[in-house]
Description:
Layout: H1 8-12, E1 19-21, E2 28-35, E3 46-52, H2 54-65
Antiparallel strand pairs: 1-2, 2-3
Amino acid sequence: MGDRGLRVAEVLDVRPCDVSRRSDGRHYKLEVVGGKDTSGEYDGGKHRETWVPLDLEAHINRIVNADVNEIDDRDCLVDRSQCTL
């Protein structure tokens, strides 16, 4: 995801519900809500979208659907512990 131009804080905030299929039905996108706003124009951060490769979307689905992980659709995919970064 870092290859998609996301900042570290934005990667840490990614949730499964932020990934969705594009209207063409073949590609996926990631909605970044509350991203860094360097212009000061947006309340609550800048909203933007970036594409997600198919293999990354499949990997996210495997993580979410694994029985050992108790990740809800609204939970962050990356743990925010000190060891994360």
